[in-house]
Write a structure and sequence with these properties.
The chain is mainly β. The chain is 9% helix and 36% strand. Strands 3, 6, 7, 8, 10 and 11 form a six-stranded antiparallel beta sheet that branches. InterPro entries: SAM-dependent_MTases_sf.
Length: 246
């Protein structure tokens, strides 16, 4: 950054602050307000896509220093989801039985005992889905929106509930989740889904996956998915539950 500023002859106009955003004070700004807040919501500590919502909390900490017409980019984020069928990834939650003449019964028992006997989804897990072939069973859904132009509401539960239909009654293995940001340009995290064709995921970001244990019920395919998503703004925790509709 220093080299770019120097080569652009902007050393007298631009100053870099080597402090965490949460630690910026009016003294650092020499009496000025922040007119533009520009960031890429990516943090090394991220494991699931929505952990990048930490940006919203950083923006909130800076709120007293922002001008009344401060331009904030990204101005919002959306939690997106799509129902999928995997070629192999869902088998991680299935019994192995006998492999290479070895009986893996103890492992199978431990896995199955940890899985509830319900039609609801398991907690989300982190995967790089460009490595695991999957097929779309629905269109892309917007599940929750986050408005960064306003501070994080204090000690509030944000909640969204709804449902969407699958393209045809079938066995649904899980819901894939990712975040999209309003930045004026849209990075392609997922090419337009084409039913019957493999999904083409970006290799630059991981996705969250909520697996279904019961993929069908008495041989009938599921026809839709219901969702219940909540965010505790006091802790920043995002809770989610998906349930197959038969």
């Amino acid at each position: 950054s220093l080299q770019i500023i120097s080569c652009s002859s902007l050393s007298d106009s631009i100053s870099l602050l080597s402090v965490d955003p949460n630690d910026i004070t009016p003294t650092h700004l020499i009496g000025h307000s922040i007119d533009i807040l520009l960031a890429e919501p990516f943090f090394v500590s991220m494991t699931l896509p929505w952990h990048s919502l930490y940006f919203w909390y950083v923006r909130t900490a800076l709120d007293p220093l922002l001008s009344t017409d401060c331009a904030i980019t990204p101005g919002s984020a959306h939690l997106m989801g799509i129902a999928v069928k995997f070629e192999n990834l869902h088998l991680l939650k299935h019994s192995l039985g006998k492999v290479e003449e070895f009986y893996l019964t103890p492992y199978d028992d431990a896995v199955m005992e940890s899985i509830p006997d319900i039609n609801k989804s398991l907690p989300p897990e982190d995967y790089s889905l460009w490595e695991y072939p999957s097929y779309p069973l629905s269109g892309v859904q917007t599940l929750m929106k986050f408005d960064f132009t306003s501070p994080v509401p204090k000690d509030t539960i944000l909640r969204e509930k709804g449902s969407w239909s699958l393209t045809t009654p079938t066995s649904c293995h899980g819901i894939v989740l990712w975040m999209e940001y309003s930045t004026g340009w849209t990075p392609v995290l997922l090419d337009e889904p084409i039913f019957g064709h493999k999904l083409n995921w970006s290799s630059n970001q991981n996705q969250g996956v909520c697996f279904f244990v019961k993929e069908d019920y008495e041989g009938e395919g599921s026809v839709g998915v219901a969702y219940d998503i909540s965010m505790n703004t006091g802790t920043g925790d995002l809770g989610m539950e998906f349930e197959l509709i038969f």
